[in-house]
Amino acid sequence: MVIRSAKQNAKAFRSIRGLSRNTYTGIRRALYKVGKINVDTARKNIKSGPKTGRTYELEHPFTGKLVSHQASAPGQSPANFSGALAASIGMINQGDQVVIGAGGDVVGSPFTFGSQRLGFVSYASELELDMNRPYLIKAIKSTQCPTQTFFELEIKRALLGDSG
Question: Would the pLDDT of 46 be above 50?
């Protein structure tokens, strides 16, 4: 799964490249902040609980002890068990875009489940796409509202010469 700017935005990105350096800097800062918030939100959604799915007796991956694990129900973000999925969520700043992803079984794409730069978790894409346990899409949807505010604020800051 790859989440990128739509191809119809190519014209907008060409226009962005023609803007003043300060405006471009503001746009890049806003993209970074939006990406960071999406990553933090996805991790928080996984780690927050309690979940309402089935309870299983599982062997803990680090201690080897049998533990009770409350899984997530369909529509909820995955339940945290080992922390590997949450730890594999990351972002990569690539020029005019910031891409978010989690480690998984499709290796090599710049943003995807399985990007080697984001960590490898074989079940990342299956949870999001096949098992209805959204964590990346849910995070992106929940941060749509502040996204415009970040762009307005960061472009204004850049135009005023605030390098913060």
Answer: yes
Q: Are 93 and 110 in contact (CB under 8 A)?
A: no
Task: With a cut of 50, say whether residue 113 has pLDDT above it.
Answer: no
Q: b vs e for 10-42, b when ≥16 Cβ sit within 10 Å of the residue's Cβ?
A: eeeeeeeeeeeebbbbbbbbbbebbbebbbebb
Strand partners, 57: 68
Between 4-8, 23-27, 157-161, the lowest mean confidence (pLDDT) is in 4-8
The pLDDT assigned to 163 comes to: 66
Is residue 121 within 8 A of residue 82, CB to CB? The reply is no
- How far apart CA 104 and CA 82 sit, in angstroms, is 15
Q: Return d(Cα 122, Cα 135) in angstroms, integer.
A: 15
Q: How far apart are CA 96 and CA 31, in angstroms?
A: 8
Measured CA to CA, the distance from residue 4 to residue 31 in angstroms comes to 12
